[in-house]
């Protein structure tokens, strides 16, 4: 199967299925051997719960491991030894009701289903003492941003502990995905996280194409990758503009903001939506690139490549911006690895994970994109990483457009889905790895659809990075991670 | 006397609007936008006056009267300030003490109002404001004291018109300009001390204290801030104005022009640099105190050396 994203398809019968204790031992052994968790989820299977773990070995191969447990008996938690699992175990507990024995922090992830009315009773961690004061921010914020509740325990101006309560954007995405015809879900998938439409759509298309044995032409792969990189450039511009505004650096705020318009308008000319909706469809792309449009896209890219270095220079050389961002919100490499951070935030802490480097075929194989790594782990590092990624993507875009200027491939039909298959797709979106996992039943019907946005794993990174910082620095830490609320809340 | 007072009154009515407009225009031009009209503040005030105020049920009358206390104290400070570089409305010995403490009274009112809301943001903003103003007060007194010593005069407008004869006097003059600029930035909540454009409650100082005010109350606060900026700018302008003290049209015009220049300068600083870390703001204010000490030493040295 040739594709530009990481896709792994397996017959359900071929997945090693263990009893809970053996499964736990298997995972423990693998994590100690350097495996990395990609996703872990469960679903109700009659009166039992079927748990699936997807891991990545050090040689980048993908491993699946399954177990069936009884909800009342459950299994003994793994989070205290492998903290990266904390969000998965919490989600598993919330979605399936399975008992996870001895878990220290089984707080709701997003208050799914019937518990939604209990959101006001979230058990925030409390610190008592004379000099401790508690600051609650949100869920309604002063800016036009998504809702999320932040609770700070402060000693004076210093943040001792931050707890983030999310779930206000929960829409029941995963349940809704099972209600419709599986080949017609793109419009829904594109709204999982509106700023990551392309990455989510691509992950969805890849899982479908994988279980229906649909091979795509390299031109289609290239067109999808171009849309994905345009999204990356646009969102990095938006993030830098926001970061500059938050530190009060007017020139950065306005210029990055202006250039973002150029980037999203380019996407709009390709697919009709500035946020990339309708760009990808299972079996192909819904974008056209006639010669006059190609010239326009090239013109826009040239404009970006001409103007960006000027403002980058201005931003990077500004002493006051550096002073404001340097050594603020530091997340060390060890912390990032332990928490299982992904994407941009992980790379800014020195962890070299980038799915675009790992693909064995497709657009990123034909024309590799250099990976940017920064070791500082602070807000300044994350800002510099975004600038570096943007530059790399723009250069890549100009070259790939010259290689594949013709996208006129007819869309392929998605045939019937093969029965008893599990398809896993991982796309490196601008924020990090977007993971979709689809499982079909005995007649080829979709029995489970798992969606995972990178924000789901990275929110805890923000909470840890803020510790010991001043509370007035929280907004820039938050902006530098630039996480999605709705991507987490589903 | 009468025409000067009338001119002062006219300046007090118009200049705060103009200076606020100039700062915003300068920021807009630096960021490549056209910017709002120069008199946008007037339109905003009219809009806010037509609205009603919303009060939280936890607040007491302190919250309601604070904006008007702030407005009155700002106007009170304008009475003793040389708005046009010459005689103010009222002038009496040591009137700069009045200026410093009516500002203090206004600040106290708005801090109490912020605490009155019971919100953690208001409390944080008030705590920050208290810290900064504690540091600012000595700077202001050192400077005015040094100028007073230099000129031998005890009223603000006369002390601001030193005779620059030789090195020490010049040192006092420069140090006073530095310190007064910082005083202006802190008192009127401008960058790099405070970001008036931010929407992030956790980083705010002055803005967060007025976050809960609305309608006419908010209008009073905005007008008070604009007046305070004009008072601060006119003090700097008088110090810079070579014709300060003369009640001529030329001197007054020059003073107004320098005020506009100060606004352009503040707007430019705000456009080109990022805001300081909150922890670094006290260090920035200490620069004003240090300048004040230098000015005081220089003035004392000159006074001691004089025949």
Structure characteristics:
heterodimer; A: 490 residues; alpha+beta; Beta Polymerase, domain 2; Cytochrome-c3 Hydrogenase, chain B; 2 domains; 4-stranded antiparallel sheet; 4-stranded mixed sheet; 15 strands; 42% helix; 18% strand; globular; B: 307 residues; mainly alpha
Structural description of this entry:
- The complex is a heterodimer of chains A (490) and B (307).
- Chain A is an alpha+beta fold.
- Chain A has helices spanning 20-32, 86-96, 173-179, 186-189, 197-211, 218-246, 250-271, 291-317, 319-325, 333-339, 343-348, 355-358, 363-366, 379-403, 454-466, 474-481, 485-489, and strands spanning 6-11, 17-18, 36-45, 48-56, 62-69, 75-76, 100-101, 132-137, 149-155, 158-165, 280-281, 284-285, 421-428, 433-440, 446-452.
- Chain A has a 4-stranded antiparallel sheet.
- In chain A, helix 5 runs antiparallel to helix 6 (218-246) and helix 15 packs antiparallel against helix 16 (474-481).
- Chain A is globular and about 60 Å long.
- Chain B has helices at 2-30, 40-50, 61-80, 95-116, 120-151, 156-159, 167-187, 206-209, 215-240, 249-272, 281-305.
- The radius of gyration of chain B is 19 Å and the shape is globular.
- Chain B is mainly α and 307 residues long.
- The relative contact order of chain B is 0.18.
- The chains are: A alpha+beta (490), B mainly alpha (307).
């Amino acid at each position: 199967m040739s594709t530009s994203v990481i896709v792994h398809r397996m017959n359900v019968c071929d997945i090693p299925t263990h009893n809970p204790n053996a499964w736990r031992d298997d995972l423990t052994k693998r994590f100690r051997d350097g495996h990395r968790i990609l996703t872990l989820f469960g679903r109700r299977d009659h009166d039992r719960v079927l748990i699936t773990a997807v891991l990545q070995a050090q040689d980048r191969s993908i491993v699946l491991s399954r177990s069936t447990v009884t909800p009342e008996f459950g299994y003994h938690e793994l989070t205290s030894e492998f903290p990266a699992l904390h969000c998965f175990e919490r989600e598993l507990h919330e979605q399936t009701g399975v008992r996870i024995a001895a878990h220290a922090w089984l707080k709701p992830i997003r208050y799914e289903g019937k518990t939604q009315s209990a959101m006001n009773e979230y058990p925030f961690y409390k610190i008592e003492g004379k000099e401790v004061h508690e600051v609650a921010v949100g869920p309604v914020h002063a800016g036009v941003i998504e809702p999320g509740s932040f609770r700070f325990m402060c000693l004076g101006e210093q943040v001792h502990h931050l707890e983030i309560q999310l779930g206000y954007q929960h829409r029941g995405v995963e349940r809704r995905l099972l209600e419709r015809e599986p080949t017609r879900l793109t419009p829904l998938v594109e709204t999982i996280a509106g700023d990551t439409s392309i990455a989510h759509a691509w992950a969805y298309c890849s899982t479908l194409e994988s279980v229906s044995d649909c091979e795509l032409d390299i031109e289609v792969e290239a067109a999808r990758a171009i849309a994905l990189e345009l999204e990356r450039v646009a969102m990095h511009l938006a993030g830098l503009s926001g970061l500059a505004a938050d530190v009060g650096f007017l020139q950065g705020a306005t210029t990055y903001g202006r250039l973002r318009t150029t980037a999203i308008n380019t996407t709009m000319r390709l697919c009709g939506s500035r946020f990339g909706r309708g760009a990808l469809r299972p079996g192909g792309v819904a974008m056209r690139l006639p010669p006059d449009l190609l010239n326009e896209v090239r013109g826009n890219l040239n404009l970006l490549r001409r103007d960006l270095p000027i403002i980058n220079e201005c931003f990077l050389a500004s002493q006051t911006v550096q002073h404001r961002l340097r050594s603020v919100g530091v997340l060390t490499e060890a912390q990032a690895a332990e928490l299982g951070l992904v994407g941009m935030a992980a790379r800014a802490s020195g962890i070299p994970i980038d799915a675009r480097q790992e693909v064995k075929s497709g657009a990123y194989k034909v024309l590799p994109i250099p990976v940017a790594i920064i070791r500082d782990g602070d807000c300044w590092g994350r800002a510099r990483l975004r600038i570096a990624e943007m530059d790399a993507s723009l250069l890549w875009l100009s070259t790939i457009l010259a290689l594949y200027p013709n996208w006129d491939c007819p869309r392929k039909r998605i045939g019937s889905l093969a029965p008893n298959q599990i398809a896993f797709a991982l796309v490196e979106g601008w924020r990090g790895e977007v993971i979709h996992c689809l499982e079909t039943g005995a007649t080829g019907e979709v029995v489970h659809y798992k969606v995972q946005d990178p924000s789901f794993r990275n929110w805890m990174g923000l909470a840890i990075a803020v510790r010991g910082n001043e509370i007035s620095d929280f907004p820039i830490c938050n902006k530098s991670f630039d996480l999605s609320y709705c991507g987490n809340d589903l | 006397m009468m025409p000067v007072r009338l001119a002062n009154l006219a300046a007090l009515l118009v200049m705060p609007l103009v200076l606020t407009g100039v700062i915003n225009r300068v920021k807009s031009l630096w960021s490549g936008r056209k910017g709002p009209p120069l008199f946008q503040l007037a339109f905003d005030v009219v809009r806010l006056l037509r609205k009603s105020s919303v009060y939280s049920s936890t607040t007491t009358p302190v919250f309601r009267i604070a904006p008007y206390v702030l407005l009155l104290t700002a106007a009170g400070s304008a009475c003793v300030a040389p708005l046009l570089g010459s005689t103010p409305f009222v002038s009496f010995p040591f009137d700069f003490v009045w200026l410093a403490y009516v500002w203090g009274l206004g600040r106290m009112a708005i801090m109490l109002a912020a605490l009155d809301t019971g919100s953690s943001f208001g409390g944080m903003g008030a705590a920050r404001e208290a810290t900064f103003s504690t540091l600012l007060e000595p700077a202001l007194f050192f400077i005015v004291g040094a100028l007073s010593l230099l000129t031998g005069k005890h009223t603000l407008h006369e002390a601001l018109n030193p005779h620059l004869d030789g090195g020490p006097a010049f040192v006092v003059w420069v140090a006073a300009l530095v310190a007064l600029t910082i005083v202006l930035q802190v008192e009127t909540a401008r960058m790099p001390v405070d970001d008036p454009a931010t929407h992030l409650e956790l980083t705010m100082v002055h803005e967060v204290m007025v976050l809960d005010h609305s309608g006419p109350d908010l209008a009073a606060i905005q007008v008070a801030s604009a007046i305070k900026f004009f008072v601060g700018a006119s003090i700097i302008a008088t110090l810079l104005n070579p014709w300060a003290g003369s009640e001529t049209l030329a001197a007054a015009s020059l003073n107004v022009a320098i005020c506009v220049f100060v606004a352009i300068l503040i707007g430019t600083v705000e456009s080109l640099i990022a805001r300081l870390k909150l922890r670094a703001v006290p260090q920035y204010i200490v620069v004003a105190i240090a300048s004040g000490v230098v000015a005081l030493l220089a003035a004392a040295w000159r006074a001691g050396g004089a025949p």
